[in-house]
Amino acid sequence: MDSVREYPIVYSVESAIKNLAENDVDTFWAFYEKLKVEDFFFVQRLLVRGLKKIVTSYPTKAYEFLIEDERRFILGSYQDCHSDTIDIIKLIVPNLDKERLQQIETAISQFNMYKDSWNEESPNIRLDRIRYNREHRLRLLRAFPSEYMSEKTKRLLEEEKRAFPHLSDKDVYFSGVHSVGSRLSAQQMAKAKDEELLNLFNELSDNTGWDHPRFRSRGGTIQASREFGELAKEQPEKVVRLIFKMHPKRNEITVGHALEGLSKSDLSSQKLLELIQELNKAGFE
Q: Is this model's pTM higher than 0.70 or not?
């Protein structure tokens, strides 16, 4: 995920999972079965890194991992939210039967970045999110090796490529000197009161996704949660205090980014694991 020098705990955990997958696959699968139900991007990204090491030997298991939870279509980095998912798609597709290939095509074609409640938003926001969903689906379809793709999906791919001819695989982008980011930076969050941050994430709940519900030029919960994750690296005590005041089902994305940030702070790995267990008991999946 990140360099050894910058994030030694994360690197150590990731390396251990990769080594386990390569050298003791039975233990890896036991570990995988236990943790795959965790609802945190950080944990899911670690698992997918292990899966990539053995995916060609166990393509069906990797297929099941991908297909059983739509959110696994957005496993990736800050720069590319689909990068890990795309790697898995490229690796498993040549090793699957026709039925499973069709199911992946269908899952991508129906992929929805947003919670069901986005349909309750204003018409302009709904139109924007329809477009954003098409863009994200196109990015995923482009990862699907064309020689294994059905004719129907090939036609869809070509139509979408014509509709979005300059679509990038990057989520961090600039237009001149302007970037679409969080309303508050990590530095501003560090100075903000607890109540101010709780109010921010009460408004920017999971269903806002990439878009602010009131300001089109500002990001939604994903951008703000990334900044919150940056805050966690520098002020772990503050972030731990705040995440237990957040709401399961509404702030899962924010808590997930917080955990990833905490893993790169001076918080011990034992404390981090205990924290994940406590959050599960509190209702965070």
A: no
For the CA atoms of 284, 246, 190, 228, the dihedral, rounded to the nearest 10 degrees, stands at 40
The number of CA neighbours under 13 Å toward the Cβ of 105 is 19
CA-to-CA distance for 63 and 185, rounded, in angstroms? Answer: 37
Lowest mean pLDDT among 67-76, 119-128, 151-160: 119-128
CB atoms within 10 A of CB 176: 5
Give tens-digit pLDDT for 232-278: 999 999 999 999 999 887 888 888 888 888 888 888 877 887 888 78
Q: Rg for the chain (alpha carbons), in Å?
A: 19
Helix axes 8-23, 41-54, angle to 10 degrees: 40
Residue 212, amino acid = H
> Phi and psi at residue 244, in whole multiples of 5°?
-80, -5
